## 1
Amino acid sequence: MKKPNINWNEIDNVILDMDGTLLDLNFDNQFWLHHVPVCHARRHGISKQASLDIILPRMQKVRGSLDWYDIHYWSRELGLDILTLKQDLVNLIKIRPGVHEFLNALREQNKTVWLATNAHHETIPVKLDRTDLWSYFHQIISSSEVGFAKESTNFWYHVNKRHPFNPQKSVFIDDNLAVLRVAKRYGVRHLLAIGRPDLSGEELIQNEFPTVDHFHEITPLPNRP
Ligand SMILES: [Mg+2]
């Protein structure tokens, strides 16, 4: 897999995904593939497998769209209060190794740092409260507020309209290849993928984008006095 090689002198703007990039995707996998089916099964008096058989095709149908990321959509679809259920697993919300050091180094270098996430805007506080990451970001951008998922180039047009930035002087890091491809099409110059979005899961094997395995690989060195 390609290793990242960022010249930080060329970068003004650092745009970061949240789940699977700054945070371990294990929470989301456990939540959607275990906790939600179990609660759905309990509510409807069916087995977990029967519940998965109902939920997974529905997920497949809307994958990558705003609905897929919309907690209210899933609350309606499944008859569950998704936001409240997330509280059950908050102890699984974890920052990936090296993230604080990376974000501190960016701050030190006066980079503009944005969080750009497909997470619904109401779920962002659940993650950021738990991890104490709020203070690192100059902008927090949720696709639910932009009106387009990151899988659409419209997402980037609207972001640039609201918060003008130079894609040529930007780095964008995301664990979703479809999202990275769209950012490339839009013209974001420096694009990095994540080697293992779920730290308890499989490695993401690909050769399209340089891969971050640990944030220390790309953390800018401190400015010399
Ligand atoms: Mg992600």
Note: Residues 17, 19-21, 174-176 surround magnesium ion (CB under 6 Å).
## 2
Amino acid sequence: MSDIKKVVIIGSGLGGLSCGVVLAKNGYDITVLEQGDQIGGCLQCFTRRGAKFETGMHFIGSAAKGQILDMILEYLEVKKDITLSPLNPDCYDVVSIYGEKFKFPNGSEQFIEKFSTYFPKEKDNILKYWDLVKKVAGASSLAMLQHAESDEVLNMKYQMLSINGVLDEIFTDEKIKNVLIGNLPLYAAIKDKTPFATHAFVADFYNQSAFRIVGGSDSVAISLRKTIEKYGGKVLTKHKATKIVCDSTKALGVETQGGVFFEADYFIAGTHPLRALQLIDSKLIRPAFRSRIMSIPQTPGVFCVYVRFKENTVKYMNSNFYGYNTSSTWNCESYTDSNWPKNWLYMHLCHKDKAEFAQTGVILAFMQFNELQKWVGTPIGRRGEDYENFKTRKAEQLIASVEKQFPGLQNSIASYYTSTPLTYFDYTGTERGSMYGIAKDIHLGATGRVPHKTRIPNLFLTGQNINTHGILGVIVGTIVTCSEFLTAETIYQQILEANK
Ligand SMILES: Cc1cc2nc3c(=O)[nH]c(=O)nc-3n(C[C@H](O)[C@H](O)[C@H](O)COP(=O)(O)OP(=O)(O)OC[C@H]3O[C@@H](n4cnc5c(N)ncnc54)[C@H](O)[C@@H]3O)c2cc1C
């Protein structure tokens, strides 16, 4: 009998695929099961009339030579397969509040200098704020690639303090507080709830460097799949897991919609945890655990307008643009029909490096799942005329809002396509179409966390709900999950080795 251990991974999102790579490289026999036609989950792209669009990941940070994501991508063998295009280092993000624009530059000194120019009276507080951001972001073990040196105490403290609570302690000026969290669509922050640690990680991650992936984020998924296959594993699309079959002590195999049964020694669910729980009816999973996971709030959903531009009409915008139609950048996720969209995020896809003109762009705005409730259960592409009318009305509202800051945009659009939180629910299984899965809430503490281990000893969870969302957040989750097979220190060591 072979000593090689079999692992079945459910879901080919970044979490599932990166676990597949780490374990395949370490001698495990990997099978990834994906429900959809395409791999990648939120790394998926789609093409209409020859123009390509990203549905989830649009830009990444800390990926310059020697930075943390660069090292991890080298280890995962992705770097050779993707081309990164740097966003404008003087303003990778632009926050515009009622048309007043603030640019976020890369680099600590540059950030402090720029913000001190915008808010000269706040210079000392800006220094204090940035020092804290760097300390909190650096407190994670991954930042050091050395488990022992992580500062758990500092990390924990700022997991329990809200972003606005900490900013209120540092600043008195309301405007600077609003600007500093102006890119909050990147982490769907909620006032009084989202931990300052989340803000610090994201702020530091993109401040270090910011890039688009040339040709689209699906190249990351394609590369990860290639590596799994190189080490003898398989990634199977159109294989929806319908049941994780267990005996009284452990999981035995996964049943799929097509009736195929996959036996293995270990199982990892890279899906939203509620999708994973739906697959299990073992007594090993206690009702109290189910209800705790079910009660964790979700991040808001998102409405997207994917625009295809008329040829050579729109200059490629090498920044992300966050527009606000409100003076406060908080609470944009709660809106009425008449004041939506309170804010939006507008970006271009980098279809080739140093392109002069953009081919496509995307506009994102928060949307609550309640708005889609009446179409739940309807099939994709056949939800009915009222759904199509709803989407058109929302798209026109959103485009008109962006047009105010980008005059001429409407006339440059050759065609557009839309997606709603329901689309995300159907394509990725994210609960209530939530953008980033479960929401972090300082008041919930441990009860708001999804553990990577389950009471079924050979079943683990991974993906954005374990640690946090985003390319680095998900990969940290992967390291946490795979540390059950290899230990975190081994993985850190392997990352360092791969970068020698
Ligand atoms: C609009 C948007 C913009 C974003 N922008 C960025 C960005 O610019 N930068 C960044 O770093 N991050 C960004 N993110 C976040 C990032 O894309 C996600 O955190 C990450 O890709 C999630 O990966 P995952 O593996 O956890 O989950 P997912 O990508 O959701 O993957 C889960 C997979 O499981 C599959 N699945 C579910 N149920 C089953 C089943 N029963 N059987 C088989 N398969 C199943 C799904 O089909 C899916 O493929 C964005 C996300 C969104 C939604």
Note: The radius of gyration is 22 Å.
